[in-house]
Each structure stands twice: as C-alpha cells, then as structure tokens.
Write a structure and sequence with these properties.
This protein is of the alpha/beta class. Helix content is 27%, strand content 23%.
Length: 199
C-alpha cells in the first residue's frame, strides 16, 4: 500500500516491504514490478539465489544480469570503476538507464557475465528505490520470462512457469497495464564515448 505525503510523493508502507525483504534475505526469488517491466529478483550477493534465478530463467553464465542499486555510493562498492560521464548521465537521463561495467567486485561469480562484466541500474521509481534502501543490498532484476521468450508487458502476461518458480509475488501494480519498456542499455567504449546496446 502506498500513501500520499505532503511533499507530493508516494511512500511505501513498511508492512508491504517486510515480507519482500524477508524473502530476499532468506535467499528466495521474488516477482516484482521494477521501474520498467515485471522482473524476477533475488539478493545479488547470494550465490545460491542467483544460480537459482539463472536456472529458472534458463540464462547461461555469459549473459550479464541486470542489478538494481539505490545509490551511486552503493554502486561503487560493487564495480571497480565508474566513469565520471556515467555519473552525469545517470543524473540527467530521463529514461531508465542500465550501464554495463567492465568488472564486478564483492559479488558472486553468478551475478556477473563470464567476462566479469555486470549491468547496474539506479531506479528513480519510488517503490524500487525504497525496497532497495530497506534491503540494503543490490537486487537482481531480470525480465519475468523464460529463455528467449518475449518479456511481459504487464502482470497478466507472466507465464505460470515463472510464477510457479517464485517464492513471493509482490502484490503491487498487478492491475497496471501501462508498464514501461525495458531500459536503455549502454556501456562506455574504448574512446570513452557512450555505446548504446539497446535504445
């Protein structure tokens, strides 16, 4: 449940977050509305949880997962280098922006691609931000589909195979038919220019 504050923003009630955080802390998988589309999530620092997520999604190890972080300070703990241009882009980019960083750290091998790279996004969405801040660690957020199947555009399109493999389905935005598209994905190229992988 969300409440409207005097500042004109929505705040997530603690009792909504508590079972989600408990599930993540116990190595479980969640199905939740991200700042873009519905995603399968888990504690990005829990190797068993990430391996289970990859198995459910049928994602091979060479494919990087998208991780969500609540702040630039937290992000810097999990990647070896954040180019100054990225910090500027994240402040002013209007669409959700996922950046692929060359080398992960303080994360299990399962959370990174086989070349050591990892993809991070700092969501501006209130629900995601508050969940991440309450949990205190990055959360994997991969599309709620199996293999190469198309991502669901709303909750009603999520397959039973996905739902059956989940420990907790977040009861928020399930009736929302206006979910966003997947995020923009980019990385910093060798010439220090932004290279867009998905726009």
């Amino acid at each position: 449940m969300l409440t409207f504050t005097n500042q004109g923003t929505y705040m997530v009630q603690n009792y909504l977050l508590e079972p989600i955080v408990n599930t993540l802390e116990n190595g479980g998988l969640i199905l939740f509305p991200t700042d873009t589309i519905w995603g399968i999530g888990c504690d990005a620092t829990n190797s068993l949880a990430v391996a289970r997520l990859r198995q459910l999604r049928e994602l091979p190890g060479e494919i990087p997962l998208t991780l969500l972080s609540y702040s630039m300070e937290q992000l810097k703990f999990y990647v070896t280098f954040v180019h100054p241009r990225v910090e500027t882009l994240l402040q002013f980019h209007t669409r959700p922006l996922t950046i692929i960083y060359d080398q992960a750290r303080n994360l299990p091998d399962q959370a990174a691609a086989s070349d050591g790279s990892v993809a991070f996004r700092i969501p501006k969405d209130n629900f995601c931000h508050e969940l991440l801040e309450e949990f205190g660690r990055p959360i994997v957020a991969t599309a709620a589909c199996i293999g190469n199947n198309s991502h669901p555009t709303h909750f009603g399109e999520i397959s039973s195979a996905v739902i059956e493999g989940i420990d907790l389905v977040v009861k928020y935005r399930q009736m929302d038919k206006d979910m966003a598209e997947p995020s923009v994905v980019a990385r910093i190229g060798e010439d220090e220019e932004l290279v867009f992988i998905r726009e």
